[in-house]
Amino acid sequence: MVRPVRTVSTRDVGARKISPARSSRHVLHHRCILKTFEELALITPIKKALHEEQYVTPTPIQAQTIPAALSGRDILGSAQTGTGKTAAFALPILNRLGKRSKKSMPHFPQVLILAPTRELAIQIGDSLETYGRHLRLRHTLIYGGVNQFRQVRALKKGVHIVVATPGRLLDLMNQGHLELSRLEVFVLDEADRMLDMGFLPDLKRIIRELPEERQSMFFSATFPGKILQLSEELLNDPISVRLAPAQPTVEAIEQQLFHVTSGQKKSLLAKMLRDPNVGQAVVFTKTKRGATNLANFLQKANISADEIHGNKTQNARQRTLDGFRGGKFQVLVATDVAARGIDVDGITHVFNLDLPIEPEAYVHRIGRTGRAGETGIAVSFCGPEERGLLRAIERQIGQKIPLAAGQEEPQRSRRDDESEPRGERRERRGGNSGGPRNQRPGRKPRPQRRDESGAPKSQEKRNAPAKSESRDAKPSHGKFKARRRPKNGAGRRPSRAAAPA
Ligand code: AMP
């Protein structure tokens, strides 16, 4: 039945609100609108959990994908975090498994959800726990940077759902701890982010192991060529749901730009953080070292701060995030790799101490504020050498970032062009200038593994010879490094392995 188009008010979406502006725009794009979760053919234990969570109205991505996913169709969804996308795939999965309560089998999960980062995997696990709290289903999280012992134990015992990052998953598959041959549902979340992090080869290896007969759901915020190609390989006659990704988040947030010198950035930041209107804030830096330096600087200035980046262990990252969520400190300093994992309501401000090298990262960064229907402020500091990056960001979001009050547009200089990402510069000039010397005209530059700041890996090595962020902290297979085998799991923090979903 075709239902009348209807806009969704903030009150409709319950206590944890989704922006009504965001919702209504998307609502206009699709034909069949679900008014409430009650209309969905979801089993009672799930409906009960949604009721307890005060979810009343499905978000646009949920309204469009859940009915199709419940009927077993493949899904191609364009949406970013903050749109309710986790429930869009989690609810149909839980419904499918909960309906028939088949026992979990050792080593053979029925559902695999792949996520690019540990933080996102943990968030997905939390959502499964929330929505599936009245079901007797088991899930486990699989990611690197922690001992594999508990993950292996959970797989041996048997879980219905595995939520994993690609590196550790492949490791455990290679060691024979899990097989994907009996998989029924496969979800790929934040596919574009996986590509950015150099996961494509791992992904392809995993995809080769999937059974022919399966339901697949594919989510990505953006759809560059390689992602489209991958989705075509993976999906069978999918329902395609495309919600214009970047703009809605950007529009919900007040943006301000300061042109400053590099030397002015930290003191200006400290001054702004002392403003009583600034509550909890996230500050983004380009490098891990920059994040550590800044956190130390702020602490010395009596501003409570902690840092989160790829050099921290998984447990340390999670502790920091939990502390921030619990209001234990005011400022979280982060690098891009951690950006999408910061799902904390009530962040009033995001500061870009350094502009991101990848223009797309800007949207992910500022999307940490203005979540769940609240308003947020994103402040960016732009040094003279970052003006090219600024223009690339403005092209990406399709608008100029407004100058903060009292700020003036600086004079354009040659350095502006030099900081612009190469591809962007070439595109704007309409030529092939600026490409690597050995690159043939018209040829695409080779994809380069990038570190969390977006800089090529080799550069990161020069900057920070310490521990590197190895995708999802896969254990080293270096010649001289013996792998430590756990004797037992004693003394470790209880893992989320085999938590009831
Ligand atoms: P996600 O995009 O999945 O990270 O979800 C963003 C936030 O929206 C989370 O805090 C969810 O709990 C919340 N949320 C998801 N769906 C709904 C809904 N239908 N109504 C209210 N809040 C929701």
What's the helix and strand layout?
Layout lengths: L19 H8 L16 H9 L7 H11 L4 E4 L6 H16 L10 E4 L3 H14 L6 E5 L6 H9 L3 E4 L1 H9 L10 E4 L2 H6 L3 H9 L6 E6 L4 H10 L4 E4 L3 H6 L1 E7 L5 H9 L6 E5 L3 H13 L4 E4 L5 H12 L5 E4 L12 E6 L6 H8 L9 E7 L4 H11 L16 H5 L3 H8 L27 H7 L35 E2 L1
Parallel strand pairs: 1-6, 1-7, 2-4, 2-5, 3-4, 5-6, 8-13, 9-11, 9-12, 10-11, 12-13
Antiparallel strand pairs: 3-14
Helix pairs in contact: 3-4, 4-5, 7-9, 15-16
Bound molecules: adenosine monophosphate.
The site of adenosine monophosphate has 18 residues, from α4.
Taken from the alpha-carbon principal axes, the silhouette is globular
Q: Helical stretch count?
A: 19
User: What bound compounds does this protein have?
Assistant: adenosine monophosphate
Poorly predicted sequence stretches spanning 5 or more consecutive residues: 1-32, 416-501
User: Would you tell me the structural class of the helices and strands?
Assistant: alpha/beta
Beta strand count: 14
Biggest sheet, open or closed, and with what strands and sense?
Answer: 8 strands, mixed
Beta-strand percent range: 5-15%
Mean pLDDT: 77
CATH architecture of the largest domain: 3-Layer(aba) Sandwich
Spell out the CATH superfamily of the largest domain.
P-loop containing nucleotide triphosphate hydrolases
Task: Name the quaternary structure.
Answer: single chain
How far do the termini sit from each other?
33 Å
Domain count: the total is 2
What share of the residues lie within helices? 25-40%
CATH topology of the largest domain: Rossmann fold
Strand order of the largest sheet: 7-1-6-5-2-4-3-14
Overall radius of gyration:
23 Å
Q: Which CATH class of the largest domain is shown?
A: Alpha Beta
